[in-house]
What we know:
- By secondary structure, the protein is α+β, with helices and mostly antiparallel strands.
- The protein has two domains: 3-30 and 233-257; 35-223, Glutaredoxin (3-Layer(aba) Sandwich), CATH 3.40.30.10.
- The chain has eight helices and 13 strands.
Amino acid sequence: MKPIKVKFVIYLFLISYLFFCQVFLFGQNKQIEVGIDEKLGAFLPLDSDFITSDGDTVLLNEVISKPVLLALVYYECPGICSPLLTELGWVAQKVDLVPGEDFQVISLSFDHTESPEVAARWKSSYLKGLKGNFPADAWTFLTGDSINIKKVTDAAGFYFKPDDEEFVHAGAVLTISPDGKISRYLFGPTFNPFDVKMALIDAKSGKTNPTITKVLQFCFSYDPEGRSYTLNVTRIIGSIMLLGVGLFFAVLLLKKKK
């Protein structure tokens, strides 16, 4: 191959390489419309106020005093929220820790139209469904206005949007340290008791651990209509092409040096 042709090929693949870097790597920093953008190490706005299922107005720093399992849900959700909270209640009894002493559970509705009465009804329902003596004060159900809700969901990287009379959203439980720091994300609707226990222990010590979901989110995109994650074939193919272009470019450079 003539030198001028070699240079042309090198320049062509260099341009292609930079293009795919822009599209498939830097494009990942775009704002998520629906889903979860992990904010490990970030702090929740503990000065935000909410209303408990008993009708009391409290600040977050008044209800977060030990490691917390935080579920961002809405109580009358016809989809993932109900099984997620049921699973959360089950796993809270299986973690080999004492609820109310070693950790707390907090459910926060991101639907500002839900009232404390709605929260009280669902709290009673979930506590009745638990087998064993789960202390009522160990699981707090909160409601609030749209401003304080947005402060918390933005801090947590939890993005949702209304869809008629429902909401399109993802399902996860966050572990929060006693000082309000986000320690870990546990993606539902099912949870492993050992993972939850370790996450609570990490939260107690203030550690933050990234999840394998960071890798999975690259290969999967959230489908708002199906309320699930689907394989992103375009992104995977693009990544393979990007890798291939980079390898080919490296081979050309090595051959040129030889």
